[in-house]
Write a structure and sequence with these properties.
single chain, 290 residues, 6-stranded mixed beta sheet, 5-stranded parallel beta sheet, 10 helices, 11 strands, 34% helix, 25% strand
Length: 290
């Protein structure tokens, strides 16, 4: 997509990928959006020389692999003053640059937001007239072919025999989760808070519960503890064994550990990836491989 632009300007455009055999779980479409934004800007603001895209695997443990994505150019560079405003929407460096090259538009601002939502960081090194280097640091969950999160969606069987309760104070999130579950035939009820969730559990049988964490009055951690503490005789749901899945934008390792300590069985990050949601639910069904 970008080579014609580089060829037209006579620029050397190279990609250096330090190949890894490891499979990791990420969002390819959003990563592509980020990289295209930064690379197209690098090509736009470089009149001679080169643009390089370098991918390095920095560190790895049993759970996560971390990478540096480096976009390096020999373009016009960015002054320290301009760097402070670079990620503001529609930022223009100055009138002369705007006339010659055009502005960065919304691309960098949106890319920065996506990077932060992925719990990543972005760093900039630049000198006016000598070029710019952006370094994007992101970590991804390691994923083997056998892991439940890597199951291809066609392998996930019919889930229509499952009933679910979704607990979330955000009505849009409730509607989205309900639509995703019902798409797979899952019988779904919703609750806007922990109090009504407890009432529903006492009257209805649920095979699985999706629990938001950040809720007013009673958060997801406390709500889970309250569910686990219910008297089994007053509930239609198997309180001891019902899987409770945290659904939250808090995806750091300590956040996941806190969910497990509160009595939850699994964790799904927001925004919800449908195939990931179905795969996690499937692992708690009788048909899933043990």
């Amino acid at each position: 997509m970008l080579k014609p632009m580089a060829m037209q300007k006579g620029l050397e455009f190279t990609i250096h990928f330090f190949h890894s055999e490891d499979l990791v779980l990420g969002d390819p479409s959003k990563l592509k959006q980020i990289f295209l934004n930064f690379l197209s800007n690098a090509l736009k603001f470089t009149e001679k020389g080169s643009v390089q895209f370098i991918i390095k695997e920095e560190k790895q443990n049993s759970e996560f692999s971390c990478f540096s994505f480096i976009i390096k150019d020999t373009g016009i560079g960015i002054s320290e003053e301009q760097q402070k405003k670079l990620f503001e929407p529609f930022y223009q460096a100055d009138a002369s640059i705007n006339r010659k090259f055009g502005g960065t538009g919304l691309g960098l601002s949106i890319s920065q937001q996506i990077i932060h939502l992925m719990n990543g960081q972005i760093h900039i090194q630049s000198e006016t007239g000598k070029g710019t280097q952006f370094t994007i640091e992101l970590c991804f969950k390691n994923c083997s072919n056998q892991e439940e999160l890597c199951i291809l969606k066609e392998q996930i069987p019919d889930l229509s025999n499952i009933s679910a309760l979704v607990v979330d104070d955000n009505l849009i999130n409730l509607k989205l989760a309900k639509a995703l579950l019902e798409k797979k035939g899952i019988k779904t009820q919703t609750s806007e808070n922990a109090e009504t969730a407890l009432q529903q559990i006492s009257k209805n049988k649920f095979d699985i519960i999706l629990m938001d964490i950040q809720m007013p009055v009673t958060n997801g951690y406390t709500a889970t503890k309250q569910i686990r503490a219910l008297n089994p005789k007053t509930s239609q749901t198997d309180i001891k064994n019902v899987p409770i899945i945290a659904v939250t934008a808090n995806t750091q390792k300590e956040d996941i550990e806190r969910c497990i300590q509160a009595g939850m069985n699994a964790h799904i990050g927001k925004p919800i990836i449908p195939d990931k949601l179905y795969a996690v639910i499937w692992q708690f069904t009788d048909s899933a491989p043990k």
